[in-house]
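Why should sequence recovery work at all? Because a backbone constrains its sequence more than one might expect. Tight turns favour small or flexible residues, buried strands favour hydrophobic ones, and helices have their own preferences. The token representation captures these environments compactly. In the example below, the structure is given first.
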């Protein structure tokens, strides 16, 4: 759940930063936590370990979780896929992207449920899925992405927040960016609209072959719950 106080200067977005909110003229609001990519790095490590085993097939699980009440309660969604050994690097990336996209939608839908909506407006919050996708590309091909995203100053980001309201009020069920025109631009129509992804965030296609026997979905909508998590 992004808050106004989360907004930072672009210069504060360092490689090891885990929280914060910035505005990009290309991707809209970016949740730095979602855009970390550490989950994808872990997923690719699991795939790498599976490829090095001698079993012919291996199972991989990917999850997204949330915790509330000082981590006393946790919940989330996961998927488990069975993969035949022999994936190329491109195919590994394709599998990882598809697992992330499937799970991210399940997780956002979970957060949208009435039992969580009283606590958070995060379900399909306008920045979440696009930030997840950015995190994917940061994981598979590290680069100076902030310099390529036309980030605006904290002052200009705050101006957008104050004019349009919290990003959680705007829902985005896809991975295309939700853009908010500059309130100070008198020539712009001041309504949010869907933009296009930059080319450096489109070159991997999600895996879609589930008939050849190379990839099988074992669990397509798994749930995770924990109490008194520490």
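From this structural description, the recovered sequence reads:
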């Amino acid at each position: 759940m992004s808050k106004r106080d989360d907004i930072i200067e672009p210069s504060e977005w360092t490689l090891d930063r885990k929280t914060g909110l910035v505005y990009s003229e290309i991707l809209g609001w970016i949740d730095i936590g979602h855009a970390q990519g550490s989950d994808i790095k872990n997923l690719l490590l699991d795939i790498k370990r599976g490829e090095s085993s001698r079993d012919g097939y291996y199972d991989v699980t990917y999850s997204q979780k949330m915790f509330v009440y000082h981590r006393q309660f946790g919940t989330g969604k996961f998927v488990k896929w069975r993969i035949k050994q022999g994936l190329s690097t491109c195919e590994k990336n394709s599998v990882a992207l598809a697992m992330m996209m499937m799970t991210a939608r399940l997780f956002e839908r979970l957060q949208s449920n009435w039992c969580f909506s009283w606590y958070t407006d995060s379900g399909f919050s306008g920045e979440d899925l696009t930030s997840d996708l950015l995190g994917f590309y940061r994981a598979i091909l590290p680069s100076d992405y902030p310099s390529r995203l036309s980030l605006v100053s904290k002052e200009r980001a705050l101006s957008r927040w104050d004019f349009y309201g919290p990003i959680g009020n705007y829902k985005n069920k896809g991975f295309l960016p939700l853009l908010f025109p500059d309130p100070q631009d008198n020539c712009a129509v001041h309504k949010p609209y869907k933009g296009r992804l930059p080319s450096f965030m489109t070159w991997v296609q999600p895996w879609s072959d589930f008939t050849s026997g190379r990839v099988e979905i074992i669990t397509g909508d798994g749930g995770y719950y924990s109490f008194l998590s520490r």
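A few observations help interpret the result. The chain has one domain: 32-227.
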